[in-house]
Amino acid sequence: MKSIKNEKLIKRNGNIGQYASIIALVVLAAGMYITFAKPQLFGYALGALMAGFILSQVGMYFGNRWGRSPRPDEKIDAGLKGLPGDFAIYHYITPTAHFLVSPAGLWVLLHYHQHGKMAFIKNRWRNSGGGFLQGYMKIFGQEGIGRPDLDAESEIYSVRKFLVKHMDENEIPEINSLIVFTAEDVEIEANDSPIPAMKPKQLKEYLRQKAKDKKIGQVTLDKIKALFE
User: In terms of residue numbers, what domain contains 58?
Assistant: First the structure.
C-alpha cells in the first residue's frame, strides 16, 4: 500500500496550530492581567479574552489535524497498512483530504474525531456518552459532526469534477465514501447509515472484501494515480 501526502501543507498547518496556541495563551494572559490590574479598561480586557479564545480554537483545530502525532493521516495509514501495492492513499493532495485509489474502487475517506458514542439514529449521527471529557470537548475544541452525507456528496462531486477535466467521463469509476472515526475511545453504532462507518483498524479487512470484486482495471487505476503522482 502506497501513501502519498502533502508534507509541506502538513508542516505549515502544524506550525499555524502551534503559533496560534502560543499567541492565544499570551493574549488570554494579557486579558486576565488587564481585568484585575486595570478594571477601568474592562473593554480592552474583554476584547483580549475573546481574541484569545478564538485563537485557542484555531490552534486546537489545526493542532488536532496537523500538529499532534498520530495525525489523522497517520492513523488512516496505520489502518491500511498491509494492503497490496496497487492500493494508494493520497492525503491533502487531491480535491478531498483523504482519497483512496484501489482495485476495490475509489473512496473518499471522511475523517471525524468525535469521542464517546456515535450512533446513526433517525437519519442523523448522534454523539453521546464520553463523560466529562466528552462534555468538555463539545464546548472546547471538538467540531460537531454535522451532516456526513452532505459532506460526502460535496467531496465526491469535487473529485469527479477534477477527474472529468483529465479523463473521459465514461472511464471514471464510481466514487464511494467511508466515514472514519479516529478517536481511540469512540463507540460506533452505524445501524442503517448509508455511508459505512468504522475505526481505522477496520479499514483493511473491509477493503479487502471489496477488492475481491476487482471493480477497477489496472489501466484505469494507473491513469488515475498518474494524475496525483
Answer: 2-67
DSSP 86-106: T-EEEESSSSSSEEEEETTEE
Co-location of 48 and 105 in the same domain:
no
Residues 206 and 169 reside in one and the same domain: yes
Do both 54 and 84 map to the same domain?
A: no
| Total structural domains within the chain | 2
Of the pLDDT bands very low, low, confident and very high (cuts 50, 70, 90), residue 140 is low
Distance of CA 17 to the CA centre of its chain: 16
* pLDDT of 161 strictly over 90: yes
Of 171, 119, 168, 178, nearest to 148 by C-alpha is: 178
What pLDDT does 210 receive? Answer: 87
